[in-house]
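Lecture notes, structural biology module. Today: joint structure prediction for complexes of two components.
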Amino acid sequence: MTHPDIFEFRLYTADDTLNSRQAIANLRSICDQYLAGRYKIEFVDVIKEPDRAMEDRIFLTPTLVKLSPYPVERIVGTLSQTNLVLQVLGLDELAA
Amino acid sequence: MKTITEARAKVSTGIAGFDEITSGGLPLGRTTLLVGGPGSGKTIFGVQFLKYGAEVCEQPGIFVAFEESPKRLIDNFRSFGWKLAELQDGKLFFLDAQPMPNMIQAGNFDLSGMLAALSAKIKQMSAVRIVFDALDVVLALLPDASARQMEMNRLHQWLLAHELTALITAKAGGDDTSSAGQPFGFMQFMVDCSVVLNHRVDLGVSQRNLRVQKYRGSSFNEDESPFVIGKNGFDVAMARSLGRADAKVSNERVSTGVDRLDTMLDGGYYRGASVLITGFPGTAKTTLSGAFAEACCKRGERTMFVSFDSDGSEVVRNLTSVGIHLARHVKSGCLRMVSARTFTGSAETLLVHIKTLAQEHEALCVIVDPVSALAKAGNELTAHAVAERLIDWSKGAGVTLVCTSLMDEISGDTQNRNPLQISTIADTWIHLSYLVQAGERNRGLSIIKSRGTAHSNQVRELILSKEGVTLADIYTAGGEVLMGTMRWEKESAARFANEVADVAAKLKRVSLDAEEAVLKVRAKSLETELVAKKVEKDLLVRTTQGRKQEKSGSQQRMRLLRGADVAKPEKAAKL
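The predicted structure, tokenised, for the full assembly:
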């Protein structure tokens, strides 16, 4: 089954910490593996842009927000549990 | 970490009693942990701390709500009359930090995002106070103890770096006294101050207690202090707070409302004293306190009469029968009658009620009738402490307090027991008793003690009449105390005897007067006789002399005539 939609992500991290780096690496690898060519990622460093964290109510970092396709989903953490992430993103069939 | 400077600077919480317990409030620029079970008042404490900062201390604050939405919080606190929404304009900020319900966790995460957002907010509003309410909610999301510990540490370092006076609240399990086993054990060691709130039910009555568990670099009251969530928020009772200023001491006397009692007390109660009137039911405790209330009102002092036994209006009506007219003082607003029968809750709550009402009324004199009512309905355990605090409070406020206390008739022992055992801290203790004698029940009054006052050691009979309350001397005869009719009989017998003695004395005086008059007359006649005798004697002397002269004169003349002794005529002339 193919997914014609473009996946839009926003990843909130805090500074260059281990959690941040892990989250970025894990997201990239998932995208490259399952969504090659049809994803967009916006990276937000809440230390640099605290107001955005406040507005978007991002209190735990890292947080991944899937903006599209609908529904919007939030995943908190380093995204190390790949299967769970794929499930939440609706990509679990691909993972199987 | 900074080193502790000489005296730890403190931040006032605005919570009545708490600042006294901690001698100033929360540690400035440090973190305080507030632990308590559900419904123990953690959130109220936190919000009150921030509200006071924003309203009174010009210290903006941030409330981080992990458990409730700020909107709900603001709505809830409206019942305290707190207008938090108005403070939100730059003085108080509520951060809705509830975890999103649709949030999914995958892997490790931390609180950096929130702290970053807060850093920006703190800078923007120059916040100095911060409350993290229900931190446990967010910590519970973390996968393991080490992750929790790391985040607590991160938070703590962040707080220190921002030099915020912080309050972190967290739910505790059932056992509030041990903290080591809790997930917040680590937190307990980290923070500078730790406070435990406790809410339990003793014999069906809710009792709330607050206890400061630790306070680095400061002395504090280590005991559990009862508190109440009253209509104005938190109110911590402080029984024995450290360094409490001595109560204002006055030498002024205030009338008890009964003249002879004033005399017995050498002028009346001291202003600001606590007076305890004990006695069995019907010994006129209420009457005596009513007399005091009337005397206070006549002096124009605002007075509050708290009646637990009957309705305020009933008390006013009943006292009219003994010549105590309170109605006009109630009308003028000088006297406030409080019917406390309707009060429910713990003794602590009742005390807060009384205190609040007295403050509202700006009462200078307060009467609690009877104070033993505090011990009813499962409050026996705390009533004693509460009664003590009532006295402490009245002293601190300079209020003259008159409490009545019912003696348990069954307990028998009349003099030395009193259910609340507050007699030791009361300044003046008046005991009313019955004496059953010759088919009569008469009321006796005695002053058991009165500090700093010369007072009569006599038992007096308390007489209630339409004209008012009076005290009469009692008679002792053959080692027995006589009251009522027997006293009256004794008195009239004595009066009769007196009259007889009076008449006898009068008679005696009259007869003595008569004797005196007789003697005076006799003295007068003797005097007259004496004068006559003297005259007679004078006359006698003169006639004798005259005769002698006559005799010698005639001899000379004879010699002259005879012509003898011519040479001495001058000599003869001289004679």
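Point to remember: Chain B has a mean pLDDT of 81.
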